[in-house]
Amino acid sequence: MSEPGASTRAAGFSPQWGPIVAGALAAAALALVLHAFAAAVGLSISSTAPTWRDTSFALVLLSGLYLVLSALAAYGLGGYVTGRLTSARYAPDSDEAELRDGAHGLIAWALATILTALIALSATQALSRVTAPGSGNAGPAASVGSESLIAPEIDRLFRSERPPQGDVAATRAEAGRLLLSASSHSGLQPDDRAWLIRLTAARTGLNEADATRRVDQVVARSSETITKARRAGLVIGFMTGAAALLGAVAAWFAAVAGGQHRDGGAVPAWMGHRRPVTTTSRTVLP
């Protein structure tokens, strides 16, 4: 004897892509709005301005918490829209209906995550082209990274009243790559430090003692800046992963709630639609 409904469950899961795409677009749109608001009030997880270097660890943690909350809101909206728009194919309040609605919410979460990542990648590439140093030779990727991370330190290193001579971009790129190694476990190697001193003396016209003093100061500031950026990156990276995982949970339960409301379940008062009450006048005959 076959169990009733077994043939229906054996037919397999066929997702409804219309509600999934609608929920993913809603989640991605709300995420972009919330991130734009965060950038406006100073809670953005990244910034092209040099003032991010002066932010405290508490502000970085607050930015991560805002990222988690915005993910819960965005993915929750996307999951609910997906579950509410999905056509009911099973009996309400059944395990199959809940599993199907939750799976639709997870697929919408995955699609929204991909859309958000693509948009963020495009924005990052556009900003990197704007903020990258203008030069005919692009140089290695580390050169552009050093220009955006420790650009003020490189400016202090080669600050001089003398007019620049030769390929300034190549010199800055080389110095930036050397300074990036200052925060490593081994630190700046002695031969690299000696070369950086000679390079600074040649570019600025300082004597060896002044060039050595300036290089040591710049190396110390660069190491502090890179260490601070690394710690902030660890916090933001952990918060991003936590936001994605919690967003998946939110999308699942929101899609299940949307499916229950679709099937006639109890809807909160603030989400309900009140139908206007129409009254008909009756004439009472004597």
From TrEMBL:
<feature type="transmembrane region" description="Helical">
    <location>
        <begin position="20"/>
        <end position="45"/>
    </location>
</feature>
<protein>
    <submittedName>
        <fullName>Uncharacterized protein</fullName>
    </submittedName>
</protein>
<keyword id="KW-0472">Membrane</keyword>
<feature type="transmembrane region" description="Helical">
    <location>
        <begin position="102"/>
        <end position="121"/>
    </location>
</feature>
<feature type="transmembrane region" description="Helical">
    <location>
        <begin position="57"/>
        <end position="82"/>
    </location>
</feature>
<feature type="transmembrane region" description="Helical">
    <location>
        <begin position="232"/>
        <end position="255"/>
    </location>
</feature>
<keyword id="KW-0812">Transmembrane</keyword>
<keyword id="KW-1133">Transmembrane helix</keyword>
